[in-house]
Amino acid sequence: MNSRFNQLKNQGDRALEQLEEPDIHWVPNEAANSIAVIVKHMSGNMVSRWTDFLTSDGEKENRNRDQEFINTIASKDDLLETWEYGWRILISTLQSLKEEDLEKYVTIRSQSLSVIDAIERQLTHYSSHIGQILYIGKQLKGTQWQSLSIPKGKSEEYLKEMKKKHGTS
Predict the structure, then answer these.
(1) CA 23 to CA 141: how far, in whole Å?
(2) How far apart are CA 103 and CA 123, in angstroms?
(3) What confidence tens digit (pLDDT) does each residue in 88-139 have?
(4) Residues in contact with 104: Cβ distance below 8 Å, sequence separation at least 6, in sequence order
């Protein structure tokens, strides 16, 4: 479970590494969010959901979700600090969970969810936002974008490598 979040974070890390300062603030139109805003929202969500995960509502009273969609991130360094802060709380909480905790229930916005459902819900949420970051980054960088998965035209080569690696060739 923790490994899925780590894989997702790693994908986001690798995308953010490729971006320059202006890239994190770019928006295609007024209805869209910049990467800076997406990261700010993700971090705000992580802090709210994963702080006191088992004992308090995941939508904390001190969270101002609407504020998360106003870009106050001034630099790429600020962005990375915000990004890491949310992930530290999430990963620390996941690492603290015991097997018996997975049978418990938590509350998010007054709704009771099994711990497994709450975790899957957040994994899906963060995946969609990281997908947005990747899409924006790829659009901005074009041919300079370094693929984070199997590059076009390399599927067969990748499959051979995986078979060799896992002893099924």
Answers:
(1) 9
(2) 18
(3) 999 999 999 999 999 999 999 999 999 999 999 999 999 999 999 999 999 9
(4) 54, 114, 115
